[in-house]
Amino acid sequence: MMINSNDSKNYCPKIRDDLLFKEMDDGGVVYIPATEECHSLNATSAYIWALCDGRHSVDSIIAAIKEDFNKFDVSPEDAVIDLLKQLQNKNLLEDK
Description:
Blueprint: E1 20-24, E2 27-32, E3 37-42, H1 43-51, H2 58-68, H3 77-89
Antiparallel strand pairs: 1-2, 2-3
C-alpha cells in the first residue's frame, strides 16, 4: 500500500525483517546488509521507526508523536506521513 494522507490511516507499516538498526544517542542508523547501505535517522525518525512494527497504524503513530513530542507548532501529521513515504520509497518497509 502506498502511504498518503487520505486512505492509509489504518495501514500498519512494518520494517523489513532483514534490516539492522543501531540506536544512537541522537537517533539511529539503519543498515541494509544485502546492499551495504546505511541510512541515518534523527531522534524523532528513530522513534517512528520503532513504531513501524506492523501493529501500529499510521494514525496511532501520529497520535504517539503528538503525545510524546508535544513541542509542535503545527500538527506533525504531514511530517510523519512524509517520513513513512521516504522509508517506503527507500524500500525499508515491507510491502503489504
